[in-house]
Amino acid sequence: MSDREHADAVLEHVAVLAFLYYPGIEVDDPTYSLAHDIEWCLARLGDVSDLERERMRALFARAISDPTATREELFTALAGLDGVLVADHDE
Length: 91
Prior knowledge:
Layout: H1 3-20, H2 25-28, H3 34-42, H4 50-65, H5 67-79
């Protein structure tokens, strides 16, 4: 897969979670965990620094809870990770 295809796969994970997320989900579903959802997205990243991983964790959280406000920043950040996205990770 190309870097673009990997970035698209990460964005797809975030988009699915953003589509399912709504304020109050934790009340309606006590088993829901935003942190777990973020880890699901982070699993698509390759060998990035701890600093980049934390940056992406924060972006994923914002993109899931407010995708409109964060999508451009997330796309730009993913584009900057050329060459480090995981290959052939099926989830």
